[in-house]
Design goal:
CATH class of the largest domain: Mainly Alpha
CATH architecture of the largest domain: Orthogonal Bundle
Number of domains: 3
Radius of gyration: 43 Å
CATH superfamily of the largest domain: Hypothetical protein af1432
Strand order of the largest sheet: 2-1-3-4-5
Strand content: 5-15%
Low-confidence stretches: 1-8, 190-199, 504-512
Number of helices: 20
CATH topology of the largest domain: Hypothetical protein af1432
Helix content: 55-70%
Order of helices and strands: HEHEHEHEHEHHEHEHHEEEHHHHHHHHHH
């Protein structure tokens, strides 16, 4: 056999079974010279038992033997081994096993016996190629499964150092390597720091490369340094006899670093390693992006909190300015927020929803800041022009509060707290269920406090009269369920609520 055939045959074990010792010995000599590890048996049943404890790649089996035929031997073997590549020998082509038997027992081939064994050797070489391909496929499949199982781990958001550790550990497990390193750009510094600090490198090594980046760069050989640069510049895999450099690319197909793996038997896994490194690159890019977003989010949150605080101060000033215009309405907004919250509690609303009602009550009349004093403080009945002007305050208030997202849930309540169930309210003439439920609650709370407070144009109503007015308006101006709940609340807890309003601190909560 040629030298290159001997090299290819290494690592393959062949078992020979024939009841003629001369055939077994002749085949063993020929196959051993070809570089195969060979073991022969003249007893088929002994050979079957040996196969249970030892692994062979190819079985060469005589079909017609005295003690037992070859198909029976194969049948016993297939009970516990379906991977063994089996070739049948026959003394004459007419004595070959039937095609049905060959298919059923997954026999890969057969040939006639002759003195030179030429045909058999060709079949064995073909078998070796097939087995080699199956090994590659199996190895590739196992590698893909390992990659798939490792992806969730390396994609898990955690510090960059831990991600690098996971990447190195996972890729080394694919090749049984012990020495590896990653060298990447710290792109999270590009926008976070000054230009002088851009493109700092992050290094992580294992095995003989477990050291600081300073030690690594000081000990880096010129050949490896040149190869790292070549891999980065040309964005390609660079192979050595004992290792491989794989480029790490970002989503724009720009180089962000390299991964070096030191191992001998990686050549048939190069494609697998590239697939893994692509996933590793995506995981690293994702981590860097998350880091940048976190930095930006912190800056945005800080800025937003400052803006929110200033805007809250501005809105509060506007609300107090409205109260300052009319001494008779001072405290009205806080009481409306209080009553709205109490009604909401009966409806078993969440704490967040109760806060929304409270804040809406506090700011429901903020739009009156744009109403002139001659209308707001008028003691006589408003004329049509003046009435149309006062009707604008819900919409103006909604516009003021809409300027910041923290009030997005409050805006509809402020806008629609003067809508009526019968559709005769303003600003849009909504009716029934078209009016948000919370706005219907706010409407009842607002009307009750307005009726029980002194105004420039009238004196306040008594509690019983105010309740009566709510009941009369139920179903036309007000939501019937809300009125029923609020009137029952007043009947049961009026004194307690009065004390809370007069003597307790009103906890003004701002929805976030």
């Amino acid at each position: 056999m040629r030298k290159n055939s001997q090299i290819k045959s290494k690592g393959y074990r062949i078992m020979v079974i024939d009841d003629e010792i001369g055939i077994v010995d002749s085949l063993s000599i020929v196959l051993s010279k070809a570089g195969y590890e060979t073991k022969g048996f003249t007893d088929p049943l002994e050979a079957v038992e040996y196969l249970r404890i030892e692994t062979f790649d190819i079985l060469i089996l005589d079909f017609l033997m005295n003690s037992i035929h070859g198909d029976e031997v194969v049948s016993k073997i297939r009970e516990f081994n379906n991977d063994l590549y089996i070739l049948i020998l026959t003394g004459h082509k007419d004595l070959a096993p039937p095609i049905e038997t060959i298919k059923a027992l997954e026999i890969q081939g057969y040939c006639e016996k002759n003195d030179r064994f030429d045909q058999l050797i060709l079949l064995i070489e073909s078998a070796v190629k097939t087995i080699s391909q199956k090994r590659v496929i199996s190895k590739f499949t196992d590698g893909l499964n390992k990659i798939l199982s490792s992806i969730p781990k390396i994609y898990h958001l955690q510090p960059i150092g831990r991600i690098l550790d996971d990447i190195l550990n996972e890729i080394m497990s694919l090749t049984n390597s012990v020495n590896s390193f990653i060298l990447i750009d710290d792109i999270s510094n590009d926008t976070a720091n000054s230009s002088a600090n851009k493109h700092n490198s992050i290094y992580k090594g294992v095995g003989i490369y477990l050291c600081s980046i300073e030690e690594f760069t000081n000990n880096l050989s010129p050949q490896l340094m040149e190869s790292i640069g070549e891999s980065r510049m040309d964005k390609k895999v660079v192979c050595f006899d004992n290792g491989i450099i794989l480029p790490l690319m970002n989503e724009y197909h720009e180089s962000m670093g390299v991964l070096y793996l030191e191992c001998l038997n990686y050549h048939d896994m190069t494609k697998l390693l590239e697939i893994f490194v692509n996933q590793a690159s995506a995981a690293l890019n994702n981590a860097f992006l998350h880091s940048l977003i976190s930095i930006k989010n912190e800056e945005l949150i800080k800025t937003y909190d400052e803006l929110k605080e200033r805007y809250m101060d501005t809105v509060e000033v506007l609300r107090l300015a409205v109260d300052a215009k009319d001494v008779y309405t001072r405290g009205h907004s806080e009481r409306v927020g209080y009553y709205a919250r109490k009604i909401g509690e009966i409806f078993k609303l969440s704490s967040g929803e109760l806060d929304i009602l409270n804040v809406a009550g506090i700011f429901h009349d903020v739009g009156k800041i744009g109403t002139t004093d001659d209308i707001l403080l008028k003691t006589d009945k408003l004329d049509e022009r003046e009435y149309q002007e006062i009707k604008k305050h819900p919409l103006k208030g909604a516009h003021i509060l809409s300027a910041v997202s923290m009030f997005k849930d409050v805006v509809p309540l402020v806008k629609y707290h003067h809508e009526r169930i019968d559709g005769k309210g303003y600003p849009e003439g909504l009716k029934g269920d078209e009016i948000p439920m919370f706005a219907r609650i706010l409407s009842v709370a607002d009307a009750y406090d307005a009726m029980t407070s002194d105004r420039l144009y009238r004196t306040k109503l008594g509690i019983d009269e105010a309740k009566k007015q709510l009941i009369v308006g139920a179903g036309t101006q007000f939501d019937e369920k809300v009125v029923k709940v609020f009137v029952e609340l007043l009947d049961k807890k009026f004194d307690e609520m009065k004390k809370e309003i007069e003597f307790s601190y009103m906890d003004v909560k701002i929805c976030k």
